[in-house]
Design a protein that fits this description.
single chain, 13 strands, 6-stranded antiparallel β-sheet, 5-stranded parallel β-sheet, 34 helices, alpha/beta, about 800 residues
Amino acid sequence: GNKHPGRGGNTGSVFGGAQGARGRDKSVWTELIRNLERRDLLPMVVFAFSKRRCDTMVDSLTGLDLTGGAEKHEIHVFCERCLSRLSPPDRKLPQVLRVRELLRRGLGVHHAGLLPIVKEIVEMLFCRGLLKVLFSTETFAMGVNAPARSVCFQDLRKHDGSEFRGILPGEYTQMAGRAGRRGLDPVGTVIIAAWDNFPTESVVRNLLAGKATKLQSQFRLTFGMILNLMRVEDLRVEDMLARSFAEFHAQRGVMDKRAGLALDVAALKRVNHLAAEEEASDIVGWAAAEAHEHASAAVRHAAAEVRAAVLTSKGGIAAMTAGRVLLIAGGGGDIDKHGALLRIVSTSTAGARGAVASEEAAGKTYVVLVPCPEGHPALTDEEKAEEAAAARAEEEEERKPSEPMMMIRKGKRDDDDDDDDVFGGGGYGKKGGKRGGGGSEDARIEGPMPPSLPWRLSSAGMDYLVRAVPFDSVLAITEAKIPVEQGALLEAPTDGSSPTPAAAAAAARALSALEKTLSNGSPGAVHPVKDLKLADVAAVELCHEHSRLVSRLPPLPPSVAPRLRAWHALLDARRELQKRVDDAEYNLSDANLQQMPDFETRVQVLQTMGYLDEDRTVTLKGRVACEIATGDELVGTEIIFDGVLRDLPPEEAVAVLAALVFQEKNASAPELHGSLLEACERSKELAFLAGEEQLKKGLAIAPDEYVTTTLRFGLTEVVNEWAKGTLFSDICTITDVQEGSIVRTIVRLDEMCRDVRNAARIMGDSALYEKMEQASAAIKRDIVFSASLYVAGA
């Protein structure tokens, strides 16, 4: 019996299921068409974005007749000649009879649900001018050269497979461009008849004058593509990927990148030549400087991972006292070295109520004493500007009257014993010097920022810096601590470049103590558990590795001090240039192709499933997969190798394969029984396993969705009946899939049979080969494989 009585003979289906909507459609479309007929604006193409909508609109025009007697006769003769190649039962198919009646009245319908021969008849009659109104989906505007005098849009919204959206300016132009026949019409007329969803002015303006859609590559790697490329020795997959449009934008600046790489390579060659000359002049010293540079880079990398945990820990905060030896990044001309902590300066936000520990630590600045055996670094432009501004400020201060200053001093003498000094006992000037001459035990570690840092000073023939370093310049808190006279060392220089006598003496003692401490090797970092009291296991492990690197920082021999800064600049330039060259070479290499990660993942899947061996050589299973070009190559190959088709008769085997080629999502569930049902269930299991394997390797695939997208059994029962010899009119009654989709699926199924036949030949399976021969012969008959009118002539 007919499982779907709405299919076939019933041509009066109503879009949306509302009889009122059909009546409204009939009245408005009849009025519009008659109006255009009076204005001599026919023929017209009406674009609707649904096969069902096209059928509904044309079926509603039951009383509309647009052709005369001569045109009816010509249409009748043409249809008879074209349909004469069909068998008598096929000529009486409901769709054939329905469309012939429409054509007789000058109406037509064109969409993917029509039988191929019916669709070709409609196209040819429209091109001859015998059809006055054609209701079509947008595919009619893409391939068929059939212009009209008018074009009408039933709606300006469409479903693109995933969601409803407005049509794009490019799509509108493609369809509207059908209006106006070359050499016949001076202009073309475009009508927007979207009564149910009439567009706003901005929408129409965007359609008419909007920007063209940007081309986007739809290139996607498939398993079959990879396997076929792997079989060709002279073609590399990477070359094919690089030439794809998907890589076009990424590779568009390749020439500029190559030019930049050439410049960097030339600069690196020059730097290497200079480095070789320096190395030849002092092999031992250069090796020591190079080792120190490499070790410092490793320490900087490790410090970035542990700095926040160390400086915000209770033990780390307690360890930051005056005289603590710190490893400072770029201390003294961008050379990493050890220095003694003198003061901690907090910003206005650090320590505020509610501030987290990391924010508080990041807001602190550390004033340190750093030796400069290689000499003072040159002043930066910013430091020069600051010194000039300070000098101008001092000159302006000297010009001011002295009486107010005397009043201030007199006021301070009254409070001479008051410990309310704003610098916390450190002081600047003579009073500060007297109070600051003591050791660090009685001085506070936190205080304000000393003025005009950094100070480039010398004492007893030793150059040193007093400078402020930010939170992220502290590379390590070491175990070492030296005595420092904090107050004296923080006395401002008398003339900007010479320390006060007390500061000079204190600096000499501190530098001597620091040199003695470092003479035994680089001190290690504080212990993460004993000293810092860290509880996080991961942080403790990172701190241990960081401490190991700090303790292995090689010392620099005194002989390299005069050339240390120049060598450091040379080594730093070489490291930076080498990094730029390596990055540029990577960006220009195959490894930087956008599709390469996906390619490598898919290769792993193929190796795991036995399509490629360890050397990426295509196996027998892979060669079989190369032959499956019609459906999903993995699922098709797994079905063949699992023997799903082995015990099935030809009609059931081809019915199982139909699930690989049927593409429509919405179809009625088939009624399957016996061995055919078991074969379908086993195919689902194999597809699920293939999806699971892809998911394990990192592909974004859900196994259950993979099954439903690669295997669709909506026409399995139909194909089984067709292969048994059932009439086409009868198989149309057991499904709700339209006739055109059935024919298209069976035509592709014949290609699938050919693919499996070739695979059987490679495997040496003569039984499967013969079975596919019989299955192909069973489905190649009648209307499904009738010759095209364009090829046979009509």
